[in-house]
Amino acid sequence: MKHIVFHLDFVSPYAWLAFERLPEVLEGLSHSVEYRPVLLGALLKQHGNPGPAGIAPKRDWTYRHAVWLGHSLGVPLAMPARHPFNPLALLRLALACSEDGSINRFVTGTVFRHVWQGGQDALDAERLTQLAAELEPQRKPGDEDGARAKALLRANTEAATARGVFGVPALEVDGKVFWGYDSLPMLRAYLEGDAWFDQGWDAAASVAQGLPV
Q1: What integer pLDDT is reported at residue 144 of this predicted model?
Q2: Is residue 127, in this structure, part of any structural domain at all?
Q3: pLDDT at 53 over 90
Q4: Residue range(s) defining the domain that contains residue 48
Q5: Are 35 and 124 in contact (CB under 8 A)?
Q6: Most buried by CB count within 10 Å: which residue of 65, 80, 150, 182?
Q7: Alpha helices in 163-204 (DSSP H)
Q8: Residues 135, 137, 140, 143: what is their CA dihedral angle, to the nearest 10 degrees?
Q9: Are 80 and 122 in contact (CB under 8 A)?
Q10: CA dihedral (116, 120, 126, 130) positive or negative
Q11: Is the CB of residue 112 less than 8 Å from the CB of residue 16?
């Protein structure tokens, strides 16, 4: 059985799409999935990447593409009233349901749907209160001040960076990182034992850098 670590941030529409499609993509394969929230903004900052929202035409394209993908795949996806937004409150709510930095699929899906279904403001105070109430049965005791959730988010993000994660969604297995919604077919091919990965994985990334660094 292969173990997959799914690094995610709820602010990403592609992470939502990958979350919804993953069971179908991996159908018939022996696997387990561990969901780990990370702070996308910190990953981007680490590499000096402004992200799609930092480039106006790319921001427009990203939103159009994500919504079209949801439409074409039959995955409900409506842009929230404001985006991008600071996802810290959502990440910490999710990690309040964890003792080790991983969250279950119910918690992950609950927070994703809060953001990506209905087109509402993800940080609306009343909605956040409702989300917290929905997650209350999943909360772990002993973190009334939220310090543990904050520490888990920091540790998850630092660990992801150390493993070569630079964005989300990122699915990690056997030390290999598959980034983005469109990497799901590649992930399945690897899990099925596609022989390309024996040499192609390293060879494809061994090309010499042609620009000054």
Answers
A1: 87
A2: yes
A3: no
A4: 2-201
A5: no
A6: 80
A7: 184-191, 196-204
A8: 60
A9: yes
A10: negative
A11: yes
Edge-first strand order for the sheet with 176-179 is: 31-37, 2-8, 170-173, 176-179
Question: Are the beta carbons of 97 and 107 closer than 8 angstroms?
Answer: yes
Determine, yes or no, domain membership for 93. Answer: yes
Residue 60 pLDDT: 97
Please give the structure tokens belonging to residue 161.
């960076």
Is 210 among the domain residues? Answer: no
Contact 94, 107 (CB under 8 A): yes
pLDDT at 7: 98
| 106 occurs within a structural domain | yes
**How many C-beta atoms lie closer than 10 Å to residue 164's C-beta?**
12
pLDDT above 80: residue 213: no
3-state SS string for 25-48? HCCCCCEEEEEEECCHHHHHHHCC
CATH of the domain at 7: 3.40.30.10
Domain count, the chain: 1
The DSSP output letter for 55 is S
Query: Do residues 102 and 32 touch, judged by C-beta distance below 8 A?
Result: no
Per the listing, tokens 């927070």 go with 111
Asked if pLDDT for residue 180 goes beyond 90, the answer is: yes
Contact 180, 171 (CB under 8 A): no
Burial group, residue 31, by CB count within 10 angstroms (0-12, 13-18, 19+): middle
At residue 62, the pLDDT reads 97
